[in-house]
Structures are given as C-alpha cells and as structure tokens.
Amino acid sequence: MNTRIIRALGLVALGSLVVGLLGGCTTPSGAPDYTGTGALVGGASGAGLGALIDRRNPGVGALIGGAAGAITGGLIGHSMDQQARTPVYVVAPPPPPPARGYAWVNGQWVWNGIGWVWSPGHWVPAP
User: What is the pTM of this model?
Assistant: First the structure.
C-alpha cells in the first residue's frame, strides 16, 4: 500500500478518535451545542477526505478539507441550534390584581437545587 494512503487513513482514524472523544459538546447550562459538535465532526471528516483526495500532498489536503468541513459543520450545527430553541408565546395578559397595592411578577426559570423548573407569574403585595 502507498505510504501516502496509509498516512491519509491514519488522519481519518485520528479524526474519528477526536470526534468520538469530543463530539458531544454542550453549553454551560447542559443543553446540546450542535454548533460545536458540527464543527468538530465536519473538521475531522473534512480533514480525512481532504487527505485522501489530495494524494500528492495529503497534509495540505487535510488542512483545507478540515477548515472547509469545520466551517460547514459549524454553520449546519448553528442552524440546528436555532431550530431547537423553544419559542415563547404570550397567550394572554396577566389576570387583574386581587386588590390595590399588588404588583405582577413575571414567570421565570428557577434553580431548585436539582434542575431548572418554571415558576409561573403571580401577584405579590407591592413593597
């Protein structure tokens, strides 16, 4: 087997290892980060394919293919992140206050020590 092909296959294997170790990117809040994962997967597969395609100089092919793959994978992952966001719809205005001197507190996500839970809006006595 040609040494260049062996090197290219080694790059593909190394890229697969990197994707396997780092492919599950998450945001600091624990949500999946498809932008990071897409860039990693695209970069690794682009580097492997670039090395295989450019047989005369597999290093340059891997570099160009990896860069193109990382950019493309990141863009695709970013669009997946945007689609995964849950839209927030306001169905109705808050109910009327129970009496004078009350203020409306909007609903919000609250950490309960285990995870984030939704706390709905409610009326409280005004300070």
Answer: 0.47
Cα–Cα distance for residue pair 10/48, rounded to 1 Å = 8
Answer yes or no: is 113 within a domain.
no
Euclidean distance between CA atoms 46 and 52, whole angstroms: 10
Asked if the structure places residue 98 within a domain, the reply is no
- How many CB atoms are located within 10 Å of the residue 49 CB? 20
List, in order, residues 6 or more apart from 92 with CB less than 8 Å away.
none
What is the domain range of residue 78?
3-84
pLDDT in tens, 50-94: 887 877 888 888 888 888 888 888 888 888 877 777 777 767 788
Task: Kindly state whether residue 24 falls inside one of the protein's structural domains.
Answer: yes
CA dist 30 and 94 (Å) reads 31
Q: What percent of the chain has pLDDT over 70?
A: 80
Whole-number mean pLDDT of the chain? Answer: 78
- In-domain check, residue 62: yes
Phi, psi of 108 (to 5 degrees): -155, 160
Lookup result for tokens 């600091």: 28
Query: Which residue is associated with the tokens 């970069």?
Result: 43
